[in-house]
From TrEMBL:
<feature type="binding site">
    <location>
        <begin position="178"/>
        <end position="185"/>
    </location>
    <ligand>
        <name>NAD(+)</name>
    </ligand>
</feature>
<dbReference type="InterPro" id="IPR036188">
    <property type="entry name" value="FAD/NAD-bd_sf"/>
</dbReference>
<feature type="binding site">
    <location>
        <position position="269"/>
    </location>
    <ligand>
        <name>NAD(+)</name>
    </ligand>
</feature>
<feature type="binding site">
    <location>
        <position position="49"/>
    </location>
    <ligand>
        <name>FAD</name>
    </ligand>
</feature>
<feature type="binding site">
    <location>
        <position position="201"/>
    </location>
    <ligand>
        <name>NAD(+)</name>
    </ligand>
</feature>
<feature type="domain" description="Pyridine nucleotide-disulphide oxidoreductase dimerisation">
    <location>
        <begin position="344"/>
        <end position="453"/>
    </location>
</feature>
<keyword id="KW-0285">Flavoprotein</keyword>
<dbReference type="GO" id="GO:0050660">
    <property type="term" value="F:flavin adenine dinucleotide binding"/>
</dbReference>
<dbReference type="Pfam" id="PF07992">
    <property type="entry name" value="Pyr_redox_2"/>
</dbReference>
<dbReference type="GO" id="GO:0004148">
    <property type="term" value="F:dihydrolipoyl dehydrogenase (NADH) activity"/>
</dbReference>
<dbReference type="GO" id="GO:0005737">
    <property type="term" value="C:cytoplasm"/>
</dbReference>
<dbReference type="InterPro" id="IPR016156">
    <property type="entry name" value="FAD/NAD-linked_Rdtase_dimer_sf"/>
</dbReference>
<feature type="disulfide bond" description="Redox-active">
    <location>
        <begin position="40"/>
        <end position="45"/>
    </location>
</feature>
<dbReference type="InterPro" id="IPR012999">
    <property type="entry name" value="Pyr_OxRdtase_I_AS"/>
</dbReference>
<dbReference type="Pfam" id="PF02852">
    <property type="entry name" value="Pyr_redox_dim"/>
</dbReference>
<keyword id="KW-0520">NAD</keyword>
<feature type="domain" description="FAD/NAD(P)-binding">
    <location>
        <begin position="3"/>
        <end position="324"/>
    </location>
</feature>
Length: 463
């Protein structure tokens, strides 16, 4: 019952920490109260991408004639689409089970809680408690849908993202509150299924963390697709009774509008799972509702570490995985550099997709940089035109002083597959001309990166 490392939680932070620790020669156990893979694999990243792919295929079918293909009466089979997404999630969860066996990682089923130094108490489904010991304990308990008092979730008609993935029927109407990645992706999916969707956002643009030009492009694309968008607006209350929900929304003029919908989806962020995991018992220091850690994810209690959504930083799966590797390698005495949080890519898998890294135009100017901006529209891309997907653009922001890349902002088809080039460029401090002189294959969407860099220095060829 003693291990070198116990990880509480098996999401993209927890399972990566466990596998890397095993590779480094540690004996490892993972405590998990639900499905292996955590929220990301089972109720987040993976199943939503399955739903979005189904929506994309349906849209291709509806527009098949644009490609010279005849398809009649294409319609969604909502139950089959949901079933497929669950099947994909189950397969990925089983993949984690295989990786754990391959790496000799013990799985302990139940709820894990710190009770004393180097000690974890696990309560199983039957309520039985067992004590396990480890030299090092990594907390990777993740997060859940954030609940607002004026939008009380009942899990049936007023729901969070988890229920949105498993509805037993396609709703006729839905109001989505919050237009971050989760809200925007699910708004796009349900609209594609034929649901009448209203997307409500408190900030001036949807996807408010993105560059303003990108956000406005997605807003135009959503409206073109039939999604009703209200920005600078807030849901004041939801009235439930027989029939449709009545949603009172304060619009940008400060007036109350009443909208009706079968479902209200609250997508206003997440809340970290920091309750009942023993933080208080060990006096682990907190900071603004999250666990306080150093650059290597050590808490103030020796031997206890925290990663992922319960610490400060972007609440993203790939961030949790990177933190896991950094944390475990430091535990093992392997030299590792702290994560550069200014160089974390963000992706939203709507149609069109959105991807970004680094400073947007507003932030770059606020930071005092003199900047050069290069944009290349996909309307000028041969590959985008051939694919029938010329919405969007690449926007690159360079530091005029040394021509290094400050930020990259992309909106269009497959841009989530292209952003890593920009992350690497920023990591190695590549200059604009490093990008311009890197030969990109033709025809591809990615050559728009080269063209955007060239546009910033008046060297662009195709516009």
């Amino acid at each position: 019952m003693k291990y070198d490392l116990i990880v509480i939680g098996s999401g993209p932070g927890g399972y990566v920490a466990a596998i890397r620790a095993s590779q480094l020669g540690m004996t490892v156990a993972v405590v998990e109260r639900a499905e292996l893979g955590g929220i990301c694999l089972n109720w987040g990243c993976i199943p939503t991408k399955s739903l979005l792919k189904s929506a994309q295929v349906l849209e291709y079918a509806h527009h098949a004639a644009d490609y010279g293909v005849k398809i009649e009466n294409a319609a969604p089979d909502f139950d089959a689409i949901i079933a497929r997404s669950r099947g994909v999630a189950d397969k990925m969860s089983k993949g984690i089970q295989y990786l754990f066996k391959k790496n000799n990682i013990t799985v302990i089923e139940g709820h894990g809680k710190l009770t004393a130094e180097k000690t974890v108490e696990v309560t199983n489904a039957a309520g039985e408690k067992t004590i396990f010991e480890a030299q090092h304990i990594v907390l990777a308990t993740g997060a859940r849908s954030r609940q607002l008092p004026n939008i009380p979730q009942d899990g049936k008609r007023i729901i969070g993202y988890r229920q949105a993935l498993t509805l037993d029927h396609k709703p006729e109407s839905m109001i989505v509150v919050g237009s971050g990645a989760i809200g925007s992706e699910l708004a796009y999916f349900y609209n594609a299924m034929g649901t009448k969707v209203l997307l409500v956002e408190f900030m001036p643009t949807i996807l408010p963390l993105e560059d303003e030009e990108v956000s406005k492009q997605v807003g135009r694309s959503f409206k073109k697709a039939g999604i009703n968008v209200m920005v600078k607006s807030s849901v004041e209350s939801v009235e439930s009774g027989e029939g449709l929900l009545k949603v009172n929304i304060k619009n940008k003029k400060g007036e109350i509008e009443v909208h009706e919908a079968e479902i209200v989806l609250s997508a206003v962020g997440i809340a970290p799972n920091v309750e009942n995991i023993g933080l208080e018992e060990l006096n682990i220091e907190m900071e603004r509702g999250r666990v306080k850690v150093d650059d290597y994810y050590r808490t103030n209690v020796e031997g206890v570490y925290a990663i992922g959504d319960i610490v400060h930083g972007p609440a993203l799966a790939h961030v949790a995985s990177a933190e896991a590797i950094c944390c475990v390698e430091h535990i093992a005495g392997v030299h590792t550099e702290p994560i550069d949080y200014s160089n974390i890519p963000g992706c939203t898998y709507t149609t069109p997709e959105v991807a970004s890294v680094g400073l947007n135009e507003t932030k770059a100017l606020e930071a005092g940089y003199e900047i050069k901006i290069g944009k290349f529209p996909f309307t000028a891309s041969g590959k985008a035109s051939a694919a029938g997907a010329n919405e969007g653009f690449i926007k690159l922001i360079f530091n005029a002083a040394d021509n290094t890349l400050l930020g990259a902002h992309m909106v269009g088809m497959n841009v989530t597959e292209m952003i890593a080039e920009m992350v690497l460029a920023r990591k190695v401090k590549a200059t604009a001309h490093d990008i311009i002189k890197t030969v990109h294959p033709h025809p591809t969407m990615s050559e728009a990166v080269m063209e955007a860099a060239a546009a910033a220095y008046d060297e662009v060829i195709h516009i």
